[in-house]
């Protein structure tokens, strides 16, 4: 897993899972705490995430809200869009461009 960027926009790539969650949480919380305005997470390079990785995203979302910021997800890969829809988190998280629920393949 890698995270590049600053306190306004970060690119997340690789796997966001139980092995990388602690490091990702630290980097993302620091970005939230040190910035102002929207924090954009570009997920175009993300290969996969598990429940722990999704928990990290939700934790950053809550922390951003407490700091008067907003977490915005950008370029969410289709398989992760399906997970967000299945868990109904697409209704809570800000997703740039939204998710075309009807265009996602059924599983």
TrEMBL record:
Organism of provenance: Streptomyces spongiae
Signal peptide annotation: none
Protein name: Anti-sigma factor antagonist
Family label: Belongs to the anti-sigma-factor antagonist family.
Pfam families: STAS_2 (PF13466)
GO MF, any single term: anti-sigma factor antagonist activity
STAS domain residues: 1-107
């Amino acid at each position: 897993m890698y995270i590049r960027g600053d306190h306004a926009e970060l690119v997340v790539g690789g796997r966001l899972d139980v092995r990388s969650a602690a490091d990702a949480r630290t980097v993302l919380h620091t970005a939230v705490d040190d910035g102002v305005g929207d924090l954009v997470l570009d997920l175009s390079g993300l290969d996969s995430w598990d429940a722990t990785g999704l928990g990290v995203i939700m934790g950053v979302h809550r922390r951003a809200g407490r700091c008067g910021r907003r977490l915005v997800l950008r370029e969410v890969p289709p398989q992760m869009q399906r997970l967000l829809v299945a868990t109904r988190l697409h209704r809570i998280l800000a997703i740039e461009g939204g998710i075309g629920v009807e265009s996602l393949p059924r599983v």
